[in-house]
Amino acid sequence: MNIAVAGTGYVGLVTGTCLAEMGQTVVCFDVQKEKIAALQQRRSPIYEPGLEQLIQKNMSAGRLSFTADEKKAYGEADIVFLAVGTPEQEDGSANLTYIEEAVRSIARNMEKDVIIVTKSTVPVGTNERIRQMMERLKPPFLRISVVSNPEFLREGSAIHDWFYGDRIVIGASKEDEEAVAVVAKLYEPLGIPMMKTDLASAEMIKYASNAFLATKISFINEIANICEKVGATIDDVAYGIGLDKRIGPQFLQAGIGYGGSCFPKDTKALVQIAGNVQHRFELLEAVIQVNNKQQSMLVEKAKQYVGCLRGKKIALLGLAFKPNTDDVREAASLVIANQLIGEGATVVAYDPIAVDNAKKHFPPSVQYADAIIEAIRGADAAFIVTEWDEIKRTPLSVFREHMRTPIVLDGRNCYSPEEARRSHVTYISIGRAPVLAGVYQTE
Ligand SMILES: NC(=O)c1ccc[n+]([C@@H]2O[C@H](COP(=O)([O-])OP(=O)(O)OC[C@H]3O[C@@H](n4cnc5c(N)ncnc54)[C@H](O)[C@@H]3O)[C@@H](O)[C@H]2O)c1
């Protein structure tokens, strides 16, 4: 089997590399020539733990190659995985132009029967439209099949998730049963539970999964906000809820909301998908609203404890939307940086990995530090936005030592209130009582 992958982003690159690691021959194609040039020199254009080593290993073994030439990519392909972006448009719906471009390119260049496997997250009905486009554009003597195979990997642990995922979903219409068997065989060695369904259900499973996870996050964040007002502690409350097996402990960490390239766009797209069939998805609308408010919460708290932010030096610790990735798309840090600058503060940011990406998206006045201590030195307040291990491992006493006024606003609950008391910092976190430096507090 010759496998081609369209798109060498977070999903395409992991898909291509992991398929090669499983012994397949894979060629990855991208329209961004600089990405392909870097990959041809064995450098990964994205940060994903373990990925670059796996790329190098499989290139050396002759199983993995990269090309910016669509003929080389699709001419010999038996299977093409679609992993191009489906970003959100102004109205929240998914932009399918990259999918359409890729489909046209496959149709133009295919020289064999081909199975198209859609990994990109696409609205319900898109795979059917892909089939219609392909039928119209392909050479008449060749056959195509279309399989929906939504991706569930998490950035930061994508390779682990490929090999040890919870499930593999394969959707297709009845006429493509042969193609389903071929795709299922590819995945078989992984031993991951596989479910087969129709195209629309497979597409819906992906959106419904992300919507449910986003709902869990907004739910626990609202509970945390109430905890602050009634004197309860979110850590105990979340633990107590999570002990119920019907609920489970995962995705109950209160914080300043979800970000990244998936939850924000997929929740909005699902609201649109529902709207298209005259169904108002009110629950999900509320989840989105709660998340938007939650991302702004730390700045409001800062004004309460620091006072006017004009002219203040604020350290922003963590820029990636979550640890172990360089992805800053829809990150809370971006919302916070813009707000702080709007308030007239000077923002000095630190992130162990995501600074290069941040520089492309953040306001130009943001300054960047090479180390945590450099960011917090002389600062009037420090915001913790991403729970990188390096940040979590920095004792609060270090903040006390280096800041002008030791006010730490922790959007990820990285520290215990006890440590804050011992370290004599003012410590404001989510869903817990504030700890005020210099104020003697009893339990
Ligand atoms: N990032 C995640 O964690 C994740 C997880 C599950 C699903 N998804 C979905 O997978 C899809 C890809 O996401 P991503 O994060 O990898 O996106 P990305 O932006 O990192 O990568 C997309 C890549 O596609 C390339 N591209 C655009 N048009 C192309 C074309 N015509 N031919 C070939 N390449 C083309 C772009 O240049 C880019 O390199 C999206 O639909 C996303 O919703 C993402």
TrEMBL record:
Q: Which InterPro entries match?
A: 6-PGluconate_DH-like_C_sf, NAD(P)-bd_dom_sf, UDP-Glc/GDP-Man, UDP-Glc/GDP-Man_DH_C, UDP-Glc/GDP-Man_DH_C_sf, UDP-Glc/GDP-Man_DH_dimer, UDP-Glc/GDP-Man_DH_N, UDPglc_DH_bac
Q: What is its EC number?
A: 1.1.1.22
Decide whether keyword Metal-binding is in the record: no
Q: Any idea which positions bind substrate?
A: F152, L153, R154, E155, K206, F251, L252, Q253, A254, G255, G259, K322
Catalysed reaction, written as an equation: UDP-alpha-D-glucose + 2 NAD(+) + H2O = UDP-alpha-D-glucuronate + 2 NADH + 3 H(+)
Q: Which GO terms describe its biological process?
A: polysaccharide biosynthetic process; UDP-glucuronate biosynthetic process
Q: Which SUPFAM superfamilies match?
A: 6-phosphogluconate dehydrogenase C-terminal domain-like (SSF48179), NAD(P)-binding Rossmann-fold domains (SSF51735), UDP-glucose/GDP-mannose dehydrogenase C-terminal domain (SSF52413)
UniProt keywords, alphabetically: NAD, Oxidoreductase
A Pfam family (short name) is UDPG_MGDP_dh
* Active site positions, chain numbering: C262
Annotated signal sequence is none
Which family does this protein fall into?
A: Belongs to the UDP-glucose/GDP-mannose dehydrogenase family.
The protein here is known as: UDP-glucose 6-dehydrogenase
Source species, please?
Anoxybacteroides tepidamans
